Amino acid sequence: HILVFLAPALLVYTALMIVPLAETLRLSLFTAKDQVVSFVGLDNFRLLFTDPRWSASFWNALTNNVLFFAIHMAVQNPIGIALAAMLSVPNLRFRAAYRTTLFMPTMLSFVVIGFIWKLILSPLWGVAPNLLDAIGLKFLFGPWLGQEHTALVTISLVSVWQYIGIPMMLIYAALLSIPEEVIEAAECDGVVGIKQFWKIKLPLILPAIGLVSILTFVANFNAFDLIYVSQGALAGPNFATDILGTFLYRTFFGHQLQLGDQHMGATIATVMFLIILSVVGFYLLVIQRRIRRYQF
């Protein structure tokens, strides 16, 4: 009887997830020359990691992806925790309005987000120069999306602004789930305010913080849309914002004078899958167990 109920979901999951994944893995083991497909084993991975035609772009995209993730971890998640802590303060006025306002960018289309921020940051018609000039900081403004050393950081911060609502809401829910008896016991012992958050609440929401961190990692290593909308498929300037998602897109589908190569594209997709799988597996098998042991 259980199998009867699970069968529809298993069929849909198999058709939409398992079959495409298996086909991607299969394609990565083949190559095509003159329309002749031949089995090459792991040679595509060797080309990706060591051949100058592929390795420079791959390692640049991987490095940028790691930096993209690091900025989210260093900026997005701490701010999300702080906002959640603020929203959980008892008797906070206009809590619902704050929560809705902070979460609203997450609900907007990435096309809208990319277009709006390109307008805001434009040196020609953007409002950012005028806003900085109003507070005497116009000297700090520059074509941040057009400079190699600032483009990736700028795109990362735009992404942080868009998705800050997700860690905020997850941590907020975790804070609300803390039993009132625990809070009352802490108050009886004189643990209140910031001290209560650090000593009592933070250890209790560590599993939620771990979940937010792993979701951030998976999302960042699957990222593509915002950079594609803002910087194009070439992830300019000079591939400064190129990450694995945009590199995969150009390789698989081709762009301008670059012809698409589905086998090398599948190889890149397989590497992305293995990176995500290894990190998620390490978190579930090692870090999550330690968090639970610390918590209880």
DSSP helix count? 14
Shape: globular
Radius of gyration, in Å, reads 23 Å
Order of secondary-structure elements = HEEHHHHHHHHHHHHH
Q: Low-confidence runs (pLDDT<50, min 5 residues)?
A: none
Q: Going across the major beta sheet, what is the strand order?
A: 1-2
Q: What structural class is derived from the secondary structure elements?
A: mainly alpha
N- to C-terminal separation? 37 Å
The fraction of residues assigned to DSSP E strands is: under 5%
Q: Provide the helix percentage.
A: over 70%
Overview of the structural elements:
- This protein is an all-alpha fold and 296 residues long.
- The chain is 73% helix and 3% strand.
- The chain is built from 14 helices and two strands; from the N terminus they run αββααααααααααααα.
- The chain has helices at residues 2-27, 43-50, 52-87, 95-107, 110-120, 128-134, 148-163, 165-176, 180-188, 193-204, 206-221, 225-231, 244-253, 262-295; strands at 30-33, 36-39.
- A two-stranded antiparallel sheet has the order 1-2.
- The longest helix has 36 residues, at 52-87.
- The protein is globular and about 75 Å long.
- The two termini are 37 Å apart.
- The mean pLDDT is 91.
Features:
two-stranded antiparallel sheet, single chain, 2 strands, mainly alpha, 14 helices, 296 residues
What's the short version?
This protein is 73% helix and 3% strand. By secondary structure, it is an all-alpha fold.
SSE inventory with pairings:
Elements: H1 2-27, E1 30-33, E2 36-39, H2 43-50, H3 52-87, H4 95-107, H5 110-120, H6 128-134, H7 148-163, H8 165-176, H9 180-188, H10 193-204, H11 206-221, H12 225-231, H13 244-253, H14 262-295
Antiparallel strand pairs: 1-2
